[in-house]
Amino acid sequence: MSRRQPLSAARSLTRRNPCREPRARFLLICEGEVTEPEYFAYVKEALRDHLLVIEISKTHGNPLQLVREAVARSRSAASKARKDRDDHLRYDQIWCVTDVDSHPQLSEAKMLAEKNGVHLAISNPCFELWPLLHIVDRRCQMTSREMQAELRQHMPGYEKSLDCAKLRGHYATARERAMSILKQHERDDNLVDSNPSTNVWQLVDELLCSKQRADGRVTTSPL
């Protein structure tokens, strides 16, 4: 019968704490109650990964209300992280998804967001431009009502919900169109009244990059 080897001095009898992999945590706060949450629920499902946490807030409102909520949530998470001594409880990024429309306090919201490290995904005139760019290259100036009406033409039943299945496979095209529109506004020196425009792709890019970092490899976009 073999004898059990004596414990080495280098070996510890103390049980190690379980290893916990860091997870990227995103908090998204949307102005609208239907279209934006439905779109990001679709993105969340497409990017499902145990190392990527996408939390979609139920808070809605104008841009300033959204940013104030974002700042409060950020501070609350940071406080809990300090109390529990767990930095994983902090949010890595917080985004407010809002429209330009006719919000008088948008400039104030931008300043508060910049001061507190909150990111903004802004669509002009409204969020509907982003799904519409998945379908057509829309560059003419439009009102929110006109934008929503055109989206209904391409997506019957849009009044009740956003048919995200029609968007799948067209993210790269929508991103390219949105970037091209912004460059056109820059050439025309028209960034103040940049209708139409959207930078929602920047938020989606951050989500995609976080998933790729979690996976440890570059993968084809599931969007």
What would your notes on this structure say?
Helix content is 42%, strand content 12%. By secondary structure, it is of the alpha/beta class. It has one domain. β3, α3 and β4 form a beta-alpha-beta unit. α2 runs parallel beside α3. It starts with 23 loop residues before the first strand and ends in an 8-residue tail after the last helix. The N terminus is likely disordered. InterPro entries: RloB (IPR025591). This is RloB family protein. It comes from Kibdelosporangium lantanae.
Describe the protein's topology:
Elements lengths: L23 E7 L4 H12 L5 E5 L6 H22 L8 E7 L6 H11 L2 E6 L4 H5 L10 H11 L16 H17 L9 E2 L1 H16 L8
Parallel strand pairs: 1-2, 1-3, 3-4
Antiparallel strand pairs: 4-5
Helix pairs in contact: 2-3
